[in-house]
Design brief:
The protein has 476 residues and is an alpha/beta fold. The protein has 18 helices and 11 strands.
């Protein structure tokens, strides 16, 4: 099989073939590395090329298989790791010149879990400064481009991951999400992801000097971005494997108990004070019909306290960020990043003092109301981005730019605040004045039921198709 075909294959197909001996891990990784070196100069998605060490590991996997060593579920699958997570021997830069020499001494749990499953890391992907923008640009590594075109953002903060996987640079991409950083890049690039729920994927950076703030711990999760939904299903059991370094990890199996009868799905187009683009509305209609035809019972129902939870959650996060991260942002962030943070503080006035503690405590109130709602509706179909993908660096354009990119993302950071899992899947290839662009919807699920979300995403993908097929046919 030619290298051209290998780098285009899904993680599921590659794992099946390498485990069966139909193709070597070395050939698979060589194809991915070749693709990375061919297209990454235009995209700047990967900022650390690990192709040489990846080839060495691939040869080791082939030799181990030949000796009869059991293969993992991701045997030989090329993956990328975001530069804000520790990988032994490499800098955890987090997009900051000040951290360019911050070499990690050990792997983070997500890196260990992927490699134990047989995955091969071919590169490290870009992120904005402090990984705190829905855009991917920084003074150390530069700006990442969207493979759909330079006229649209790749999203953030895992924009390097989203652009890489959709361009065929690895079959899976690691990312993380504190307010939308898995889902923004998935939506912007036409990929699929599921933001795991709180405690689902073990997390910790061995290089960190202090524990993160309580809200950062509660809202930030690790995950993967893929080209196809079945690749999420393949990889999720591996990434949720326990690690004792995360004392709050929830060691539940990937698949939960079955639900009697057809699954009820709440459906909403409510966007409060924000406009919903007609093409995004059409994507929601398509997703609704796909779920209905697949046997789900979809009912219009407004989720509880969504707007309030979103506002409270992000203002509380900003309160913690300003107190704990603020001095570092001022000292090590660029002038541009500090201007963006000033706008964050204006649009999301940080809580302070006793009010900050009260609003952090109120998180349980919102989560409880949603828990009751999800007891009736195990899944909720919602918008994600309310408009088609924004142009690059839109969040640098003052109040209007920040409002479009982040202010309107109420269906994003609200889920982080409540710790709920949420998937993002394309539901329409829109023909817009700026060209064809994928548009995604969000599916929220019961706590620790990522499996239900993935199943529903697959029903939508079966109707709409895989966006990477459209993108790669156009050529890069």
């Amino acid at each position: 099989m030619s290298d051209l075909l290998l780098w285009r294959l899904s993680a599921s197909d590659l794992a099946r073939m390498t485990r069966a001996g139909e193709v070597s891990a070395e050939a698979v990784v060589a194809a991915a590395v070749g693709r990375m070196r061919a297209v990454n100069p235009r995209l700047n998605a990967v900022v650390k090329d690990l192709g040489d060490s990846a080839m060495e590991r691939a040869r080791g996997l082939d030799a181990a298989r030949a000796r009869g060593v059991a293969t993992g579920p991701l045997h030989g699958v090329p993956v990328t790791i975001k530069v804000n997570v520790d990988q032994a021997g490499h800098a955890t830069t987090n997009g900051l010149p000040a951290l360019k020499d911050a070499i990690a001494s050990a792997d983070a749990p997500i890196v260990d879990n992927l490699q134990r499953a047989g995955a091969v890391v071919i590169g490290r992907t870009n992120t904005p400064e402090f990984s705190f923008r829905a855009e991917t640009d920084n003074p150390l590594h530069g700006r990442t481009s969207n493979p759909w075109g330079d006229h649209v953002s790749p999203g953030g903060s895992s924009g390097g991951a989203g652009a890489a996987v959709m361009a065929g640079i690895g079959a899976l991409a690691h990312g993380n999400d504190i307010g939308g950083s898995l889902r923004f890049p998935a939506a912007a690039n036409g990929a699929v992801t599921v933001k795991p729920g709180l405690g689902r994927v073990p997390a910790w950076n061995p290089s960190q000097k202090a524990e993160r703030g309580m809200l950062a711990q509660a809202m930030s999760v690790q995950g993967v971005i893929a080209r196809t939904v079945r690749d999420l299903r393949l990889s999720m059991p591996a990434v949720i494997s326990p690690d004792p370094r995360d004392p709050f990890h929830v060691p539940l199996p990937y698949e939960g108990p079955s639900i009697d009868g057809p699954i009820r799905v709440a459906f909403t187009k409510e966007t409060y004070e924000f406009d919903l683009h007609p093409e995004v509305s059409a994507a929601l209609d398509t997703a609704r019909q796909a779920l209905t035809d697949a046997g789900y019972v979809v009912e219009e129902s407004e989720p509880p306290l969504l707007r309030e939870a979103a506002s409270t959650g992000f203002r509380a996060l900003m309160g913690e960020v300003r107190l704990l991260m603020g001095p570092d942002v001022r000292a090590h962030g660029s002038e541009l990043l500090n201007a963006i943070f000033d706008e964050y503080y204006r649009q999301f006035p940080p809580f302070e003092g006793a009010e900050q503690l009260q609003m952090m405590a109120k998180r349980s109130h919102y989560a409880r109301q949603w828990s009751l709602f999800l007891d009736k509706y195990p899944l909720v179909l919602t918008p994600f981005m309310l408009q088609p993908t924004y142009r690059p660096l839109r969040d640098t354009e003052g109040a209007e730019g920040v409002r479009e990119v982040l202010g309107s993302a109420i269906y994003s950071y609200s889920m982080n605040f409540m710790g709920l899992p949420a998937g993002c899947v394309p539901a329409r290839l829109a023909r817009l004045p700026q060209g064809e662009l994928p548009l995604s919807v969000q599916i929220v699920g019961r706590r620790w039921r990522e499996d239900l979300i993935v199943n529903a995403c697959e029903a939508i993908e079966a109707r709409v198709g895989v966006m990477a097929d459209h993108l790669l046919r156009r050529g890069l």
